Automatic annotation (TrEMBL):
UniProt KW keywords: Hydrolase
GO terms of molecular function: hydrolase activity
Origin: domain of life: Bacteria
Name listed for the protein in its UniProt record: Phosphoribosyl-ATP pyrophosphohydrolase
Matching CDD domains: NTP-PPase_COG4997
InterPro entries (UniProt xref): MSMEG_1276-like_NTP-PPase_dom
Species of the source: Metabacillus litoralis
Amino acid sequence: MPVYNKLVRGKIPEIIEKSGKKYTTKILSKEEYIKELQVKGFEELKEYVEAKEKESSLEELADVLEIIHALAEYHGSSVNEIEEIRKKRAVEREGFKEKIYLVEVEDE
C-alpha cells in the first residue's frame, strides 16, 4: 500500500472510498496543520513552475490560491484582507509588471 503522508483536500477520502480502496487518515493538530499547509504550498508552487501548458498552469495556480485561502483562515484573516494588504503594497512599491530585474546595489 502506498504511503503518502500529506495534507489532502476534504473530499479525497470519499473519492478513495468510492474507488473501493481502503485508506488511513488522521486529523492534524494546529501545529501540524500549519506546517503541512506550508509544505503543500511549496509543493503546489513547484507544480506550477513545472507545468508546461496554460490549463495545467492555471489549475496549479488555483491550488496555490486554495492554500492561500487556508493560510489566511488559519491566521484569523481572509483573502479579502490579504488583497487589501497587497493593494497597499502595490501603491507603495508597485507590482512586478515592469519586469525590473535588480542586478546589484553599491555598498557605501
